[in-house]
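worker-03 picked up job from queue 'complexes'. Input manifest follows; two sequence lines, order preserved.
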Amino acid sequence: MSSTFDTVANIISETCDIEREKITPESHAIDDLGIDSLDFLDIAFAIDKAFGIKLPLEQWTQEVNDGKASTEQYFVLKNLTARIDELIAAKSAPA
Amino acid sequence: MRLEYFLLIDRIAELRLDERTIRADATVPDTSTIFEGHFPGYPLMPGVLLIETMNQASGWLLIALTKFTRMPFFAAVKEAKLRSFVTPGQKLSVSASIKHEGSGYAMTSAEIRHDGKVVCNADLTFRMVEFPSPDFRASMEKVAAEIQFPMEALGHG
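worker-03 finished. Artifact:
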């Protein structure tokens, strides 16, 4: 798996005191790992800092609340990792 | 401070949008029913109210940075340190700076000084949401006017 996943998994492990071995690309941050929205703010902060991005949590939450997206799209870790990679790529793309 | 109304900031002394900092004045009242219980014959400003004072300074900074489009709600406090007793009548200087502006949340670092000495500090987290109603926002604008929030500065941020 990508180093992005490893970084995210380590952040989750350290932030939420979850054993690293229990965190897999298939893990759902909320349903499987039991991370609540407040803990996820700390994770988002660490991810933002680690990758120099800004996870669009407001947009994601709105999409889920409006039924336009599922939580799996953003909170299953392999999907979250893919979103992070997209944000990193967008950041480094020429304007 | 108007403890009975939970208004802990008296006046915004300085708002720097470019540096993302704020400084506010707050004077602990000489008398309050709170001091009758905390503690009898030995009045001390409760630590939770000092943390709330830092929250309110941080909150006004975040309201300024989002140009009154978002309301910060206190979500978490970390590394809170109550370094000295704060007593009735003391004049406090409250300052806050942005640690991180996320999407839908923000984190600040804040401290309170008395006579130049840090009496407490903390790292604070806020959820940033739209104002629940126009009336809510209007009530905040009213408080802003009372504490000399520099509304005119928002147009130049």
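worker-03 released lock.
The radius of gyration of chain B is 15 Å.
The interface with chain A takes residues 75-76, 100, 102-105, 107, 125, 127 of chain B (CB under 8 Å).
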